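Data card: per-record layout.
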Amino acid sequence: MALGLGFQAEHSLAARLAKTFVTLEHPMTTANIALQIFTDMEAVEAQWRTLEQHADCTVFQLFDWQMEWYRHIGSKEKLIPVIVLGLDDTGVAVFILPLAIERHGLIRRLVWFGSELCDYNSPILATNFSDHVKPGQFGRLWQDIIRTIQDYPQLRFDAVEFYNMPSVVGSQPNPFLDLPVLLANCGGHVATLPEANWGRFYASKFSNSTLHTHRRKAKNLAKQGGGAIRFVDVQEQAEIECTITKLIEQKRSSYARMGVHDMFARPGFREFYLAIVANPRLCEVIHVTRLDVAGIPVATGLGLRFNSSYSLVMSSYEDEFAKYSPGRQHIQEMMQYAIGQKMQKFDFTIGDEPYKLAWSDINLPLFFHFDSITLRGRIVIAARMVIHYVDTWYNQTTLLNPPLRQVLRKTRRSLRRMFI
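The structure for this 420-residue chain is written out next.
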């Protein structure tokens, strides 16, 4: 079967491939699937946009989210897009795999495109995907995809590293779970929303004493502004950008307070968030809100609206109001908004923070897939496996004595510095 590979791109390596188009012959395990591999996002844009309108995917695989990530972050890191398009025998898209090759030192890895800013990484599947790729067949198809990518020398890689893959994509099983996978150390958490009656839903989640504490803190927060708390559904573009700027400022302050890595210190991250809220194609998806007390934005948030689900991507609050729990009150307002918009799910996304567990009734396990292609890849994947098991042990053994936990913590840091 003929497999078309179209190569066009914006950075230096792909620019050398820009005028190349070759046809390769490979035996296929799924007879009615033809593959095209693109290194230019714009070359596959039309088919991507057409497929995502009716496909099963997560909000993080929308073309505009991925394109803004590439424009502001991926292209600066010399990442090469490897977008795999699967077509049926009539030329209609059956799936898109948004992949990329990134380089760390001498190692080239095949990864999910935009993975670091996608809480969930998954393929984009046509609703009839399972008619073309039967259960259990994807493993063989995946080997053909790898061989097809590797057939072009400048797209060869040493290892495959796929993180944070859900078990289900929309209404379909994730075909990547046909591959050998590991369970991630933390998952996603989702609350099923009622059709109405916020009060009953809220009361069902907490004890009477906890509800009393929530009311007391809300009352005390309101006193800081003369008795009024205002939830703001930000609409004007200039105000949206100001609110996102404040959210980034609050988030950076919280990173500093906790002594953890500040992602906004990296080039392009701030610009990415400002770009997605300014992208007119995402205006129906992006939702920016804040909680004001006496005109002060004491809490801010960024949500995504997609397929009857509201996903909380990022939120933060002003340190000086922390004792009144403005972040929690803001999330409650966002959940009430989602109910009012007839959303069915409120997705807290990845992370096992206690407040997510308190609200959620659905746990979304996430999975990793590692594979090695070369000797260098085998060394890296072996190290990745060690890191994974050290992380698992560290997270599951909170009762270890402090000296042993300190040793594990230092081991994790050393391994990550060497291999991540």
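Known properties of this structure: Residues 1-29 have pLDDT under 50 and may be disordered. Residues 308 and 341 are 9 Å apart (CA to CA).

See the next section for split statistics.
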